[in-house]
Model the fold of this input.
Amino acid sequence: MYDLLSGLSIIEASSFVASPTAGLYCAQLGAEVIRVDHKAGGLDYDRYMLTAEGRSLSWENLNRAKKSVALDLQSDEGRELLVELARATGQLITNLPVNSFLSHAAVAAGRPDLVSVRIMGWHDGRQAMDFTVNAASGYPLMTGPAEWDPVSAPPVNQLLPAWDFITGAYCAFALLAGLRHRDATGQGKELRVPLGDVAIGTVANSGAMAEMLYRGSDRERLGNAIWGAFGRDFVSGDGQRFMVAALTAKQWSALVGAFGVADEVAAVERRTGVSFATSDHHRFTHREALFALFQSAAGGIDYADLAARLTRAGATFERYRTMHEAANDPELVANNPLFGPSPANPSGFAYPAARSFANVPDEPAGDPRAAPYLGEHSEEVLSQRLGLSSGAIAALIDKGVVATSDKDKP
Amino acid sequence: MYDLLSGLSIIEASSFVASPTAGLYCAQLGAEVIRVDHKAGGLDYDRYMLTAEGRSLSWENLNRAKKSVALDLQSDEGRELLVELARATGQLITNLPVNSFLSHAAVAAGRPDLVSVRIMGWHDGRQAMDFTVNAASGYPLMTGPAEWDPVSAPPVNQLLPAWDFITGAYCAFALLAGLRHRDATGQGKELRVPLGDVAIGTVANSGAMAEMLYRGSDRERLGNAIWGAFGRDFVSGDGQRFMVAALTAKQWSALVGAFGVADEVAAVERRTGVSFATSDHHRFTHREALFALFQSAAGGIDYADLAARLTRAGATFERYRTMHEAANDPELVANNPLFGPSPANPSGFAYPAARSFANVPDEPAGDPRAAPYLGEHSEEVLSQRLGLSSGAIAALIDKGVVATSDKDKP
Done:
């Protein structure tokens, strides 16, 4: 683990995906991230997939390298301990509601320079999750086979909870931006990041919103074709599916060479009177003719041969894998320095563990760390952060306000 | 615009989506982000959609609030100016190759405490784009209608360039983490973020990689159903499609109440011997029976009525919109404080412009700013950052090493 954020402690009061992801990224770069949960586990504690023993593989990956404190968050005393912890550290990531006991104002009452990042649903307070903001974004009704009838075609949801992950990364950024501002000015700050705004704001940032308004209508459904450039999935002679993309002159000439279709492409150029060498626009406009001749060429070559040619030519391509294949692919996982050896996961199941996406060349990355057991660090954190004596902590445990490690839960 | 990052200057040598997004997020929070491009425009300068005048709506949204410097980056002199700008600011975001003229080592030779963030394709140097890492991730072969034949079903690409946007947000975070470390230690740092690692690493972080390895096989294709919980798209009596999600007891009871299916759900519970009230697992396992009775109820109610009921009950749901509908939806755009009035965009086309995803309650957000014309700030930046005289800059312009605003380009 790199130590870029060492010395920084963050309280994360969190569930589901976006908010834990923000904490995960900070923890993977060396911050002390203390996730505080209700003693029975947060709303995401049983999130699929569960092992036979009932341990969530989702939870143990989204909460790697964090500490865990378990409190009775339905009691005033447990809530007050969480507020005190947020005050003691001065940094908070949460998806609890704006007006909950963990509002910025409530915590900042005892810590004026608090920097908090709060993930919301929609900006107006309406509830939302990745699945629902995605429905609003417009993407599901643009997704799917090009031949589907535009009027009756169903929406196709993306499986990746992309809005959650973008929001998570953005919130990690927003937290550090808030801290940078505090370092410069001494001022605290509340930063609110609505999941719905990340979705519709990304539609805007990508240019797609302007596109819709400029055109005055929706984009046609393109299947797997790339909008405004050359790229699509093809099938090799031995039935392997792969994606190619050519958004630069270099990528295009590499593709044409590797597929061995220079003559056929030149014939299309003569027929249409355009040159494909340097124009995304022409390659996109005449995509159907080009797709047909690329597929015709691909259909006559086995994938191994084609992949070798594409690699030699410097083309940009990738074979589709099922996710099970991807998880077992040495190139992606076992031989990828992103992954390290399995730590002792709460599930007891051992598998390669991801490090931070960012790597520092020539610096040892260290081994990935495990997620905590729920409540594993309750005593340590209450002692170190709030200065509670072991007697006081024991009394809180007896009262059921504080829970310790659930390692031996049935 | 909030001023959280004011005082911070960043050189962005960048193209496509991920790298400009990292700069955009910093610019929207007050950093001075200077995008340096080849004088004819970067590889993304003509990225779709183009207006009738040939201005890219994609480019002008991904580069809002930045400054633009245009140099002949095919000449040694232009490249040296870019290196000098990176040295002068000390912060660099780029997707140029590791061993290019803009390598960390080359820039750091004159600025030892440089913090650079470099977006790569795959960790091993292979080229990649969002489209191709997505093929490797496994998601496209899990996406699409549940009734498709698992063996012959085609991949379905997600249209959102999610890996680019996650990478962009992560790189903005990584840059600030590097700066925080430099503030503490005085040390510079190169942070490399491979797009491919963001993809396979997100598969891991989500728990899906562990899921595949634990199960030893792929997940079944679920269509629009949520994995491991209750949720799917339904169609109202008047043909409106909407998504619902229930991952908590509260969300579930709200849904059951709003759909008016309490008796039918109780009947399924009696028949199956399970209780749905508090179990994602049971709701997921018996989803087909539940989906059928929810759809049956929805099919008898008009959407307006159903939406009112769902809102009253506090359910989590959202109507599917086409993207053109979304762009024109007052709730999402016109009445959403995320968006501000149109600045003078390079395209000349006026439309609502997005602010930062993060908002600070009770603090004026200011108006969104326009993207620059290519080269609009060449003279200003070369003068301010490198101390070049107006005569020296004029000479560089005459030589074709520096270009000025392309506002009046044909």
